[in-house]
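Reopening this one. Same input as before:
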Amino acid sequence: MYVAVKGGEKAIRNAHKLLAKRRRGDTSVPSLTVDQIAEQLALSVARVMCEGSLYDEGLAALAIKQARGDLIEAAFLIRAYRTTLPRFGYSETLDTAKMLIERRISATYKDLPGGQLLGPTFDYSHRLLDFAMAAENEGALDAVESETPLNEGMPRVTDLLSDEGLMEADPLPEASDAVGDLTREPLSFPADRDLRLQNLARGDEGFLLSLAYSSQRGYARTHPFTGEIRYGEVEVEFFAEELGFNVKLGAIKVTECQMVNQFSGSAKSPPKFTRGYGLVFGQVERKAMAMSMVDRALRWEELGEEQTAPVQDTEFVLSHSDNIQATGFVEHLKLPHYVDFQAELDLVRRMRAEWFAARDQQDPYAQTDLETGKEAAE
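Same output, byte for byte:
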């Protein structure tokens, strides 16, 4: 506890009061509601759910409000709350092939079987400020021709390539293999793909984006094609042992991305495409794309490639991708380190005294300003 600050616990209580006041802001301005945040800041809510590792739009919106818009702090709040929840089992694997699709695009096929569905996106918008949004009443919204999500069968691009033998087989684990759980056990190395994907799914978006960008610029020779991005709603099922069948618990919205990369082949395998995979809560396409590119880069060893870049270093990537851990490590420097600093201060003073003593033995006529360290000519 930060009791060494002048005023001790009283100062801390006052700091909390001041924080609440600053969080509320000008009381003449209406207070933000949790529903407003959930509905109108949906992309921020999705990011907090991803990095907080908990799908709950209402709680994520509350965390954003409590954190004054600091998304990393909000994710921290969600992670902390998540630890209080009981665990009663694991859901079945999500079947994204049955997704109720709101957006589905591919950069590989113009005439994509099942069609391209642009959905809600900034991709084709002008990056110009819309000052009409600053008005208290934005007015009626233009009608959209169709907002009905599609649930028709839409084959994945990777499946189309697989049918021609041009895509590597999906590297799925054996049914008997135990799947790790980062929420229950700490990360350890070597880490198989199941743990890597879990780590990346809740990793910091900015960190993964930088790594993905580095791979595009030549640090790992990875410049993929976006095979497919799909966003929509998928059902979550749980196998109830007492009933003997799956029970539908509800539905969540996710973004799935599959990247397509070239692979020159080997003595045992002909040239083909390989894949990178990303799956995240909500509509967080940039994160899903970055995740899939980093996933592909981390597969260098199983594909017989050479490790040449930081994005291929599993321990480096996974150990530094979690912004909650990074925040704790960096921000703890704000806490009192008085004893440590006094020890360092004493050490530096003794080292300086020894340095000056040694200097005086060699040149007894030299003079130095002990406070500035600047030598003065006599």
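So the earlier flakiness isn't reproducible anymore. For the record, Residues 76 and 328 are 10 Å apart (CA to CA).
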